[in-house]
Design goal:
alpha/beta; Rossmann fold; Hect, E3 ligase catalytic domain fold; 3 domains; 14 helices; about 55% helix; about 15% strand; binds zinc ion
């Protein structure tokens, strides 16, 4: 048996103990020797992630597999090879096609039995979960940093941000604009008037745009960073105010900012209902023509009285440059999004069902083979009994051969029991349930959320929703 030893470590794993190339090599060499394998070659991808199969040594390995140079592939753990279920299948199928066995040391998984392949399938799915969870870890990382007093945002008018040192320093020109906003606000100017004034002076937002009402009100409402502070909200807990250690030279004093807050609070209850917060999908909705939808509100007369309705519409269609003149109403869109999530959850489910049905099909074939083997052994026993009757063999010979056949039958029955268990397990596979639940759960949560929570969820996890007269596509922020 000629063994290929594959080792991989990504750049950020290099420092972690147990993951080093040397450790992998040492352990696998010992493993190969213990199993009487002849080591054909070492394939080492140092500093490569498992995100795809595009790794030089892995490609060499696959070529050698196809050329019949190796019979066994050994890895330290499954995730050394890949973290992606589809990639895993590609590799396993290649190994199977060229009759190459596969051993993962720490997963104790082989591909020479259907149950081994099943286990591999499950583990592959879990490895993928692991990867998907790293997206959540980024959010957690930001929270960790917040606890230490780091304000985290990329672009804030008034400051320049250094992504390396994570520090905010005053941008003199922009800081002037910020001070003007707060000054006018404290003089009693309304948001709309301030925005108009800033635009008449030719001042621009951080993105280089004209000021809109909400970009002014947001700064007054949430601009704690202008006095060197920020709100930190741990999950399910009340927000707390922290000093930002990475804002060196705040634009406003705390007193100045607090004064502005008091003035705003005086009008808050009157205006809050009609603010931009009421648009759940603000800045996330894009027309099929590529233009963002803009927001607008109108009063509508209902049985319950006068209600403010919120709509989205393609900006180009207003100008007659887009065919899609469909308006999307905020509350209806929320429902459409919930339906989209449900559909999405079901689609994912079908993909997994298909994958598992393939496995079940294979296992059933294995079961058929085992049944045939069993019949053969039973036939042998019958012939043996006839032989004994015909006195073709003596009692001793009979007993010895019969013992052998009984053992063989027991083994086959044990094998069949395992296969049946696996089929059963597969039909209610936890991993499938888990993935389904995950998607369904998202849609359930959605129904229970308040409008501001929905908005927060959309703003955080949805990059873009492509809309025609219905939701065409949702791009998530991972
Ligand atoms: Zn359009």
């Amino acid at each position: 048996m000629k063994a290929a030893i594959y080792c991989r470590v990504s750049t950020d794993e290099q420092a972690r103990e147990g993951y080093s190339i040397e450790a992998q090599k040492r352990n696998l060499t010992k493993y190969a020797i213990d199993n009487n394998f002849e080591i054909y070659d070492y394939y080492i991808d140092d500093g490569y992630s498992a995100k795809d199969l595009n790794r030089p040594k892995l490609q060499d390995l696959l070529n050698d597999v196809k050329d019949g140079k190796v019979n066994v592939v050994c890895v330290w753990a499954l995730d050394r090879l890949t973290r992606d279920v589809v990639d895993m299948w590609t590799l396993i199928n290649t190994f199977n096609r060229y009759d190459v066995e596969f051993y993962s040391m720490t997963d104790s998984t082989t591909t020479d039995t259907a149950s081994g392949r099943l286990e591999l399938n499950v583990k592959g799915i879990f490895a993928q979960y692991e990867r998907e969870r790293t997206g959540e870890r980024v959010v957690e990382g930001m929270l960790e940093r917040a606890k230490k007093g780091y304000y985290t945002a990329n672009r804030v008018l008034g400051y320049d941000y250094d992504p390396i040192t994570k520090e905010f320093t005053q941008n003199p020109e922009e800081a002037k604009t910020v001070r003007l906003i707060f000054e006018l606000h404290c003089r009693g100017w309304g948001i709309y008037k301030i925005a108009k004034h800033l635009n008449s002076l030719g001042l621009k937002t951080k993105e280089g745009n004209q000021f809109a009402n909400n970009s002014v009100s947001y700064k007054i409402r949430n601009g704690w960073y202008y006095c060197g502070k920020f709100m930190y909200k741990p999950k399910n807990k009340k927000a707390i105010l922290l000093d930002a250690i990475n804002i060196n030279n705040p634009i406003l004093t705390e007193e100045e900012f607090m004064t502005a807050q008091k003035i705003r609070n005086a009008n808050y209850s009157k205006t809050r209902k009609y603010g931009s917060e009421a648009f759940t999908f603000k800045r996330r909705l894009q027309c099929v023509c590529g233009k963002n939808f803009s927001t607008y509100s109108t009063w509508s007369l209902r049985k319950t009285g006068k209600v403010m309705m919120r709509y989205y519409k393609c900006r180009k269609s207003d100008e007659g440059r887009c065919e899609n003149n469909k308006t999307a109403r905020n509350d209806i869109l929320e429902q459409e999004f919930a339906d989209f999530l449900k559909d999405f959850a079901n689609k994912e489910f079908i993909v997994l069902i298909e994958r598992n049905n393939e496995m079940i099909f294979e296992l059933k074939k294995d079961l058929e083979n085992a049944e045939k083997d069993l019949e053969k052994e039973i036939g042998r026993r019958k012939r043996l009994q006839y032989l004994l009757l015909d006195e073709g063999i003596n009692k001793e010979e009979f007993e010895s051969l019969n013992f052998e056949i009984t053992n063989s039958i027991n083994q086959i029955e044990e094998r069949m029991k395992n296969i049946k268990n696996n089929i059963e397990g597969l039909e209610s596979l936890n991993a499938v349930e888990k993935e389904k639940e995950l998607a369904v759960m998202l849609s359930h949560i959605w129904e229970e959320l308040t409008q501001p929570e929905k908005r927060e969820l959309i703003q955080r996890y949805v990059k873009r929703i492509i809309y025609s007269d219905h939701i065409e596509k949702v791009e998530f922020i991972l």
